[in-house]
Amino acid sequence: MRALLALAVMAAGVSLALPSFAQDKTNCADSANLTQSEMNHCAGLDYQAADDELNAVWAELRDRRGEGHSWDPILEAQRAWIAFRDAHCESVAAPYEGGSIQPLIRSSCLADVTEQRTAQLRDFLNEP
């Protein structure tokens, strides 16, 4: 149980680092007419959607595997993956440090890597 709490705290930390636009009505589908700030916001929304999907697949996997021998390696890998994801996307965004596009680069990377990890976790769901 402590392991799940630690994982939730790590995920929450990333979520808190992203800007909140709860009442924004940006039309992300109209990418040709967005400001840089709006594009950054839309990339953040894309990442949030990818993270929500990952968390749903993670919960299903946890429910199927439960605690125990077959779960422990998955949990360990997920913790390592979170550290990798964060470090990797920081390195991808680093060349844009101080630029207005850096949040878009970071959020896009987070979304892409998260979608890849979600597919990997889905593979675990298909195993016996």
- The termini sit apart by 24 Å
Tally of discrete structural domains: 1
The number of strands is 0
How much is the average pLDDT?
A: 84
Q: What is Rg?
A: 16 Å
The H-and-E topology, N to C, reads as HHHH
CA-based shape: elongated
Helix and strand content put the structural class at: mainly alpha
**CATH architectural arrangement:** Up-down Bundle
Question: What about the largest sheet?
Answer: none
- What fold name goes in the CATH topology slot? Substrate Binding Domain Of Dnak, Chain:A, Domain 2
Q: What is the count of DSSP helices, taking H or I runs of 4+ residues?
A: 4
Strand content: under 5%
Uncertain stretches? none
Proportion of helical residues: over 70%
Blueprint (SSEs and pairs):
Layout: H1 2-17, H2 36-65, H3 72-93, H4 102-126
Helix pairs in contact: 1-3, 2-4, 3-4
